Amino acid sequence: MKIKRVLLVGGTHGNELTGVYLLKKFEQHPELVRRPSFETLTLVGNPQAVAAGVRYVDQDLNRSFDLLSSEGSSKSHEHQRAIELQAQYGQDGQLPIDLIIDQHSTTSNAGIMLILDNFDPFTLRLAAHLAARHPVLKVYSYGGSERNLDSLRSIAKYRIGIEIGPIAHGTLDAKLFQENEAVIQTTLDYLETCNNTDVTVEDSSLTIYQYAGVIDYPRDESGEIQAAIHHQVQSRDYEMLNPGDPLFITFDGAIIVYQGAAPVHPLFIGEAAYLEKGIAMVLTEKKQIQIS
Description:
The chain is an alpha/beta fold.
């Protein structure tokens, strides 16, 4: 299959500004994302949230697309926006998109993270190519998290997310901005090459961090947080956490250890936007997978 149309998305969350300002740059200089064999479009996912400087208006847009098939009559801004975007860019829409690149930022120490929703061969080859060209890039897979249907990028056949951090919401970081743009440019170059020739896999192995679950903060019966993330874990995304290692420390100084049965590699440690979702961190298993 040839890629005919790519959608670059920023502002799915209105206070994550890197993607928003990269889109402004690309709109002022469209030659930067123009490739001969396919069309590249840009989209601010949630303009109303961007204007207000908030993550969302009524509900998380990136959790709203699984509602499209429901018969409920949600009047939330984000649900209506999801319906609009599906009609415009979905696979049966007016401008069907082959690949979505959705840009995000996080307060956690993510560095440059590529997010995969599934393991289709095309996306895995793209991920391996990006990892080879950008050695600092880490690859996180949502597979098993039930996130395949509710995100904005789920409306396209192929999709990737780019997550950068740490960066405070509502701010910009020049280094991360440049690294984010570099990954996009490498992706577009790869798609152009794929459209014009057979691409061989340079490295048949890819390191991924596979979703394994989440952990919430310790809370009391009223839902009040009773502990903070331990300093040996805070900001150490991708590092191994073993059973018995310190995980949280209560406000009285008591240490709560990780009680899982096997080692894990936490991501999104202390992400500010996940507090309302009851998530202190995402747990993953570090794996090597083969690319064909």
